[in-house]
Please model this.
Amino acid sequence: MLDKALFYFFAGIAVAGAALMVTRRNAVHSAIFLIATLLATAGIFLQLRAEFLFIVQIILYVGGIMVLFIFVIMLVNLDVALHQIKFARQKWVALIVTLALTAQVGVMFWTTGKMPGQGFPILTAAPANRLPPNAEAVAKSLFSSYLLPFEIASVLLLVAMIGAVVMAKKRE
Amino acid sequence: MALFLLGVIGVIMRRNVIVVLMSIELILNAVNINLVAFSRLYGDVAGQVFALFVIADAAAEAAVGLGIIIAFFRNRETVLADEMDLLKW
Model:
């Protein structure tokens, strides 16, 4: 009961923050609402027993990426953009794509519901003892079965770092 | 799902490129929630590990994207997607 209430609380904050983020005119307001959404997502992670991801989400996203965003927003001058129209003239493209994706999910639910021997795919809640506190397990898995992807990700981060520096450097 | 759709709407409709990038972060977060939820359902940490990789990718993407935005702003004095028409015929 409390679980459910908490989930709806976090999910409500996340969705409301996302909606406000997309519709705000000022990019700084957008960033603030995105932070609210990310924090709510972190709450959902914690509820799903992903403690390590909860911490990573807060430190990396809210502390790292969003600070980067806000720096750039401050760096580029926004006073001009504030007085112009908010949305590009692509309303119909957006509407069609969104409807198509919604229809896709709807069809997925519908077909799985019609499969023999299965009802509507309402997944029952996982038993409480299914996933014990698992930061250790994540680390073990990350450094054994997923060692190669881990190394590749580190190379990717290095490349991205160098690329960002080169890109943002002043040209003589 | 709603998060993902809002992110897609944001990517397509906003004029400010910075907000478009933020919408991409939103989409990645929606995917992460899904991964973690299924990881919890099946009691397997692989989903969480994968979500971790998604977060790393998101960080790399944000850094490079913002670098491009800064370079672009230095050249053209704008961050609006409509005015990036150098390759338009």
Chain B has a mean pLDDT of 71.
